[in-house]
Amino acid sequence: MFRNIYHTIFRFGVKVANIGIRPGLGFHEKKKTQLLNIIVAAGIPTNIFFLINNLFHEKMILALINFLLLVGAFLILLINSYQKFLVGQLILTFCSSVLFTTSAILFRNGGEYFLIVNLIILIIYFNEKRFLIAMSILNCLLFIGIKIFLESDHQFFTPVSFGRVIFNLTWTLAALMLALLYFKKEQLIYQEEIEEKNKDLHQMNETKEKLFSIISHDLRSPIGQLKNSLDLVKKEYMSPETFQEVSAKLSSEVDRLQSTLDNLLRWSISQLQGIKASPEIIDLNNLLQKKLLVFKQMAEQKNIKLVLENVNHFVWADPDHLLLVLRNLLSNAIKYSFQNGEILIRSYSHDNRVIIEVIDKGIGMSPEVMASIFQHDNIISNTGTANEKGTGLGLKLCKEFIEKNNGEIRIESAENKGTTFYISLPEAK
Prior knowledge:
Shape: elongated
Order of helices and strands: HHHHHHHHHEHHEEHEEHHEE
Distance between the termini: 51 Å
């Protein structure tokens, strides 16, 4: 029973705290609004109690102040529900300053201490310099003026009981603690965000430095070979027949260079603009048959056989994304396969998903390499069985692009036994 009551009160408190909170509202504005709602709502029961109490003891002026504070509280919550947060904050600070001053002067009830809370909230909440300075000066002058007045013997009405003063002072200290705890929490959040961003920035810089180091080495090699060969032909140091013999290797190097540059371009776009998928129905068999020609040529240089098995399935994905993924997986499979090997590509349907497998019998991977291969902050660039180069970006792009198409990718591998990549994508009916 008590648990149900607690949960009911808690859920109600959460609803009150989230008055005016909408999707898209900034994090810090959201937190400030929630705190304001809690402070205002917490004062409503107190004002209702003292309104009734003051009416019962015929303290009409004090009851009127309680009534105005009560109306102001509901008005602020209503204004916040329309997301007019600045208006609500202005009403709270100005009206509360006037009413607290009035009650402190007329009834000596300790209302001046609420002005200190007002001042703290002003400093924490507001960024508008002119308003902040004006309201801070006003609250300071009101507090000093009240203290000067209370030193005189002049009294307008009978002061409230000492217990009432103690209650108001306790309430003031509680509100002050809440405001300061909020401020401390915000500072800790800021500090954690800064530290996290610094950590991310450091990792990004390390990744980029490593990436540029790999690129500067791996891109220069095929370009240099091509340039040297063309220079030899141009200067007639190499006959066209000899150039024809080495052109197959140069063509393969250029193909890898093109693939590397394409990966770099895709990676740059994903970092700057994010990845956006435009899925459509894809005939997997048609896609593989049309796009495998370049990989057949690459595979033939190592006498590797490409085998398609039961790929007559339709998937729901972005064709450009899927093509990039398959191109990278096939390129990797060829790169790490031994001479005279075989690469198998097959698919099957399971639970409204199409599973695509790319299987090679190459050098495989260690558990450590498999665990880190999809990590953004860890770029691994290993040479292939014929000393082929790479940037280590391909598989990271595969993971990002597959996940953007509501898919999954995983690896099974064993050293010197081969690797199998599994791609799971929605099946197109």
